Amino acid sequence: MAKAVRFYETGSPDVMRYEDIEVGEPAPDEVRVRHVAVGLNYADTYFRDGTYPIPLPNGIGVEAAGVVVATGTNVSNVAVGDRVTYTGFINTLGAYCTERLVPAAPLIKLPDTISFETAAAMTMRGLTSAYLMRRIYDFKAGDSILLHAAAGGVGLIVSQWAKLLGLTVIGTVSTDAKAEVALAHGCDHVINYSHEDVAARVRELTDGVGVNVVFDSVGRDTFEASLNSLRRRGLMVCVGTASGTIPPFDPQLLAMKGSLYLTRPALADYIADPAEKAALAGELFDHVGSGRIRIEINQHYALEDAVQAHRDLEARKTTGSSIFII
Hints:
Its EC number is 1.6.5.5. It comes from Marinobacterium nitratireducens. α2 packs across α3 and α2 crosses α8 (about 275-290). The protein has helices spanning about 40-50, 115-135, 155-165, 175-185, 200-205, 225-230, 250-255, 275-290, 305-315, and strands at about 1-5, 15-20, 30-40, 60, 65-70, 85, 100-105, 110, 145, 170-175, 190, 210-215, 230-240, 260-265, 295-300, 320-325. It folds into 2 domains: about 1-125 and about 270-325, Alpha-Beta Complex (Quinone Oxidoreductase, Chain A, domain 1), CATH 3.90.180; about 135-265, Rossmann fold (3-Layer(aba) Sandwich). The strands form 3 sheets. Strands 3, 5, 6, 7, 8, 15 and 16 form a 7-stranded mixed sheet that branches. The model has no long low-confidence stretch (mean pLDDT about 95). It starts with a strand and ends with a strand. It is an alpha/beta fold.
């Protein structure tokens, strides 16, 4: 009997249940995948707490890696026995399970250089990092970025990728221990926002100019400091709301702070085109497979421990990537 984590109401981590499920046979455009490892992402908490509304009851999780064990009649992109990984949004929701049916379209074949565990730890984070580094802004060597949550899963990948592009990386963290992690993975400077003024420190580090781009996954608590850290005509990239959603504001504020740009991108829109997804995945796999980018899996959980995993994630006790081992 397959197992899955499901929830019947939104709320705290305690709403999740670990239970038996029937999987069934794939429809014409589906595959059946036996999971080896499942990714834990902050976005999962948004489904669970209702930030991202979905019909209930439902499964949880949008990223996993495993082996194809059956295919529908119309499937041509993968075959039985293929090692695959996937991520997405609504179309892949329900990844916290041992085995499942999933649409074939999101599946990405894994090269031999990438393990299941690494894939589960980096497919969403890695593809997010890929579009942030390669699609959001035309970076040039010498440009600077402010990277919030620099010791997190996306943060560690972005900082390493940024150094490959010759960028100066200023990271923010909440503890001295996380500062050490961030520095070890490419950050040139680290700001501990627990006791430092982020914007003032950024201005100091950039001779008063500010950074070209801010990547802000924190949201409400860091929004003002992020805007104040940008140079004239800089770009604010809102990539998450870990501290809560950003309150409404008058766009005139962007003009007053230097004709700033602001975007709120979503991974789904950067992997919707199969060719673009393949290009981003190929570049990611090449960097990771060659060792130019290291994927740090610092937390391992059993699937039945999903409640504790979410508690740890929301308490900001984690660094790097976290995965469930099946």
